[in-house]
Amino acid sequence: MNQSEQQLRVQLAACYRLIAHFKMDDLIYNHISVRLPGPEHHFLINPYGLFFSEVTASSLIKIDLEGNALEPSDYEVNRAGFVIHSAIHAAREDAICVLHTHSDAATAVSALEEGLQPVSQFAMHFWNRLGYHAYEGVALDTDERARLVRDLGPHQVMVLRNHGILAAGRTIPEAFMLAYYFERAARIQLMAQGSGSQLLLPPEAVSEKAARQFNQCEGDIRLRGEREWPAFIRLLDNLDPSYRQ
């Protein structure tokens, strides 16, 4: 958390643009929030009404832990949607960036009884490291916060049944990569299941080995996003650098 607010604004705006670029967004809905440095428990979140592809560093709104805007904006804050984010931010010091999406493949897998399976190497990131939260309707009730925290447990990603996923990253790039890998894993699983053939799954010990390698950064593996993020920034700067404004 040695980054300035402006640096975090640019990173977070880039994250919104990347979610849109990889088609994991849902119109003006969903959120990605980041905790700002300092003891005040302030956060940045998207203006309610902009597509993710329109978000810029300056359009992000600073809010408190209850989702109240702390500075003027032409847009509202979806306070109801922040119920999910505030629960995780408040309970987990390591949850610097909380990302919630309704991406197609992830939402489809959230409705499968078996959830995400170790069908591909992408899925190994999450083997035995996923929370599952039962659908309770639109997240308007603050008493759902305790159950969200309980169901996430020590994990970084939680499947929201019949809804989508939530990723809690130690950095903004890590939160993005968690969502990206989950979506790839879910898409590949659905393709394999749709083929009609019997799924070939690795032994559990092998899945656990791969999960440990990814999550403990063994060998030359680094924190998710550390290597990839500069390339993503080059991609965005070539496509449309207006996210920096």
Automatic annotation (TrEMBL):
GO terms for cellular component: cytoskeleton. It holds the Pfam family Aldolase_II. InterPro entries: Aldolase-II_Adducin_sf, Aldolase_II/adducin_N, Aldolase_II/adducin_N_sf. Transmembrane segments: none annotated. It comes from the Bacteria. GO terms for molecular function: actin filament binding. Gene3D superfamilies: Class II aldolase/adducin N-terminal domain. Residues 10-190 form the Class II aldolase/adducin N-terminal domain. GO terms for biological process: monosaccharide metabolic process. This is Class II aldolase. It comes from Pantoea coffeiphila. The lineage of its organism: Bacteria, Pseudomonadati, Pseudomonadota, Gammaproteobacteria, Enterobacterales.
